[in-house]
Amino acid sequence: MRLFSKRIGSVFLKENYDADSYIEKLQGLAQKASGSTVKEIEKQISWMKYGKKGESNVAYELKNSGMDMYILHDIYLEYEDLSAQIDYLVITRKHTYIIECKMLSGNIEIDNTGAFIRYYNYSGKSYKKGMYSPVTQNKRHLQVIKEIWMHYRENLFTRKNFEKNFDTNFHSIVVLANPETCINMKYAPKDIREQVIRADHLITYIRQKDSESKNNLSNGDMLEAAKFYLSQHKPNKLDYSLKYEELLRTTNADSQNTNEKKIILPCTAETEATQIHTPMKTTYTEDNNNNEILIKHLKDFRLEQSRREGIAPYLIFNNAQMDNLIAKMPHTPDELLKISGFGSVKVNKYGASIIKILQEFSG
Q1: What is the DSSP string of 200-229?
Q2: Which CATH number fits domain 284-363: 1.20.120.450, 3.90.600.10, 1.20.1530.20, 1.10.150.80?
Q3: Quick one: DSSP state of residue 256?
Q4: How far is residue 228's CA from residue 146's CA, in Å, rounded to a whole number?
Q5: Mean pLDDT to the nearest integer, 65-81
Q6: Confidence of residue 290 (pLDDT cuts 50, 70, 90)
């Protein structure tokens, strides 16, 4: 046990926010756009900045924690068909924490089934809406981390030991970063209550968790782990560039007075800022009308499957991947494997159903 490791404080190994460049691009794009597209772009910028403010609140707490830790902000990890967009990954001497940051307006209630319900006011009206569980979202993030670490552990004993202790050493935290948000967890399941906290309680939570562990990583151990995650980060895989290109096409279409339909952005005043990580709705022209039936069938399958698994629909396949399916019309698993985003895991899981839909449409 290392009792006298030199104090290092809170060290950000990655502090930048990868979406900043996207915000800058949007600001430039807004100057070129016209009509309703300008308002939609400005709305997107506003919500992304709102989400960034929430993550800044969490960063403030971590920087002033008085604890030894390495911190990675805005990390994107992939393993085969699995992916994780992690707001904060924090490595202390005792544990690794995966933090999902939510900057939400209004208040949150978690019922006895673990469902998240948001109450908020907009334009003088009160709303009550369900939201995708950030606990479930973070659970997927943990699974990606586990798979990546297991992949790099060749020794069978080491792999089994890592897997055995994973749930003890890795912890999910959902942080509500808006200081005005109230949380009602009176009827929430215990395991949910233990994962959802306000930003101002974050350090107290981490200290309490760390006090329960006998682990005592050295500075070198913490740094090695943090560098490993950083080496796995794939900034070029983020959705931001795809969204920018989609908006660019829409802006160009507006300026050329084409009959292309207006794009619908995923972030509206009724949704939380963190939805920037979900793919946006694809724009289709009148020439695509012949594909509408196929699009509906694919979307129906995607929605039904996502409900069965309790995950977001875009994790089955996103709109860009659906466009590729329609363009290439694969008829065999091998052909499906050649389409970006469809690895062996996804093809084995969904391939037969997707191919059947495509074959029925093509006759």
Answers
A1: GGHHHHHHHHHHT------HHHHHHHHHHH
A2: 1.10.150.80
A3: T
A4: 13
A5: 91
A6: low
d(CA 106, CA 181): 6
Overall pTM surpassing 0.70 (yes/no): no
The long-range contacts involving 215-219, CB below 8 angstroms and separated by at least 24 positions, are: 215/93, 215/94, 215/95, 215/169, 216/1, 216/2, 216/3, 216/5, 216/93, 216/94, 217/2, 217/91, 217/92, 217/93, 217/94, 218/2, 218/5, 219/5, 219/6, 219/8, 219/68
| Residue 256 neighbours by CB distance under 10 Å | 8
pLDDT attached to residue 244: 56
Q: Are strands 125-131 and 116-122 parallel, antiparallel or unpaired?
A: antiparallel
Question: Based on the number of CB atoms within 10 Å of its own CB, is 114 exposed (0-12), middle (13-18) or buried (19 or more)?
Answer: middle
Q: Give me the sign of the Cα torsion angle 183, 46, 269, 126.
A: positive
- The answer to whether 260 and 285 are in contact (CB under 8 A) is yes
* Domain-wise residue ranges, the chain: 10-237, 284-363
Amino acid occupying residue 187: Y
Buried b (16+ CB within 10 A) or exposed e, 338-362: ebeebbeebbeebbeebbebbeeee
Read off the pLDDT of residues 94-133 as tens digits, 9 standing for 90 and up: 999 999 999 888 999 999 999 999 998 888 889 898 888 9
